[in-house]
Amino acid sequence: QVVTLSLLMYPVLRSLALQLHSAVTGSYISGTHSIAFINCLNEQIAKDIARAIMDKKLAAYVNILPKSSALYFWKGELEESTEILLLVKTRTSKIGELSDYVRSIHPFEIPEIISLPVDQGNPLYLKWIEESVPRD
């Protein structure tokens, strides 16, 4: 039982240790923040989803990139369309909640919601993301 409890506590203890290390040294912990990519059919849907994300404080910043061409397979057929792409800057710990929320409001059957961890960046900008997005 002690081993099981130790293994279950490891992620929590590791997280606390990394937060303490970051606070003491002032260094950024790679992967603390992420950029999520969300595709949208048109600019109005993109703005509506971006505003909804911001209203729920699931992100510090959302870019709405202009229309781009897309090629993809859907139900075995090659499709071509245009789309608007959202770049969502947030805490990595919010990606699950962000994904669940966007799926609940997105008109696509299977919306693109993927994320990449931020390795490094401007420390002041990363701190601003931290301050803008509440902890879990």
Automatic annotation (TrEMBL):
Residues 1-17 form the signal peptide. One of its GO terms (molecular function) is copper ion binding. It holds the Pfam family CutA1. The keyword Heme does not apply. GO terms for biological process: response to metal ion. It comes from the Eukaryota. SUPFAM superfamilies: GlnB-like. Keywords: Signal. Homotrimer. Belongs to the CutA family. This is CUTA protein. It comes from Psophia crepitans.
